[in-house]
Specification:
Blueprint lengths: L27 E5 L10 E5 L3 H13 L3 E5 L10 H4 L9 E4 L8 E4 L1 H12 L7 H31 L5 H22 L11 H10 L13 H11 L2 H8 L2
Parallel strand pairs: 1-3, 2-3
Antiparallel strand pairs: 2-4, 4-5
Helix pairs in contact: 1-3, 1-6, 1-8, 4-5, 4-6, 5-7
Length: 245
C-alpha cells in the first residue's frame, strides 16, 4: 500500500518562496507535501503551482470528491525522491493515490489526462456515457495533451525563460500557439464548450489557454476563446481550484 512519502521535519521547509500555506477549500484540505497522513482521506493529490496541476484541482472541486492536497516542492526536488517515484515513476506532477478504490486496493495514477479520465469515471461526471459524446471529449482532451500543453509550454520557454534569444524557435513556437488558439476559437464558434457540454476537455485546456499573455498573443483575434474563458472562470469550482496553491 502507498503511504505518504514525505515526513515533516520543518513545517515550512517545503514552501515555495512565492506561495503561502495551502488553503482548505471545498472538499479538499491543505497539507505540506512533507506531512505524515495519519487519517487518509479518499484521494491524496500531489501537485505544485502549474497549469497541469490546476486541471486536476478544478476537477476535484467540480466533482466534490474528498481529497487531501500535498504540495510538491519542485525546486527542492521532492518529485525526484524514491518515495514519490513510487507514485509517479516519471517524477512529475500531478499525481493521485486513491485510497478508496473499489475492492479496498489503492491505485496510484499519474499524467494529468489519465487522472482526469479516472476521476470522471469514478464520479460519473464530465464524461458522457454515449459513445459519440464520450469520444468527442476524449478527442479534445488528447488535443490538449498532445498539442496545447506541450506547444504552449515551449512557446513560454523561448519567450520568457530561455537563457538567450533564439529567434527561429520563438517564431516557430509562437506561430504554433497562434494556430492552436485559432483551432479552438473556430471550434468555440459552433459550440459552447469544446465537446459541446462542459467536460474534462475544457478543464484540461483552460489552465493553459488562460495565460495567453505569456505567449504574446493578441486576444482580440480570438473572441470565442475569450467568451469561453470567461464562462469557465465564473464557475465556483474553478474559482476554488484557482485559490489553491
Amino acid at each position: 500500500m502507498f503511504e505518504s512519502p514525505f515526513h515533516r521535519s520543518d513545517p515550512d521547509s517545503d514552501c515555495d518562496s512565492d506561495s503561502d500555506e495551502p488553503k482548505a477549500s471545498g472538499t479538499g484540505t491543505g497539507s505540506d507535501v512533507l506531512s505524515l497522513i495519519k487519517e487518509p482521506l479518499m484521494i491524496d493529490f500531489y501537485t505544485s503551482s502549474s497549469p497541469n496541476g490546476l486541471k486536476v484541482q478544478i476537477m476535484l472541486e467540480e466533482t466534490g470528491l474528498e481529497y487531501e492536497l500535498h504540495r510538491v516542492n519542485l525546486s527542492e526536488g521532492d518529485q525526484k525522491t524514491p518515495e514519490y517515484l513510487k507514485i509517479n515513476p516519471n517524477g512529475k506532477i500531478p499525481a493521485i493515490v486513491d485510497r478508496d478504490e473499489l475492492g479496498g486496493d489503492e491505485v496510484a495514477i499519474f499524467e494529468s489526462g489519465a487522472i482526469l479520465l479516472y476521476l470522471a469515471e469514478k464520479s460519473g461526471e464530465f464524461l458522457p456515457v454515449d459513445a459519440n459524446g464520450r469520444w468527442q471529449v476524449i478527442s479534445w482532451l488528447m488535443f490538449q495533451m498532445a498539442g496545447i500543453g506541450p506547444s504552449l509550454a515551449q512557446a513560454g520557454y523561448f519567450l520568457n525563460r530561455a537563457p538567450e534569444p533564439v529567434p527561429h524557435a520563438v517564431e516557430k513556437s509562437v506561430s504554433e500557439a497562434e494556430r492552436l488558439y485559432t483551432v479552438v476559437d473556430r471550434r468555440l464558434a459552433e459550440a459552447e464548450f469544446l465537446a459541446g457540454d462542459y467536460s474534462i476537455a475544457d478543464m484540461a485546456s483552460y489552465p493553459w489557454m488562460r495565460i495567453h499573455q505569456r505567449f504574446g498573443l493578441d486576444f482580440a483575434e480570438y473572441p470565442n476563446v475569450s467568451r469561453w474563458l470567461e464562462a469557465i472562470a465564473a464557475r465556483p469550482a474553478v474559482q476554488r481550484g484557482l485559490a489553491l496553491p
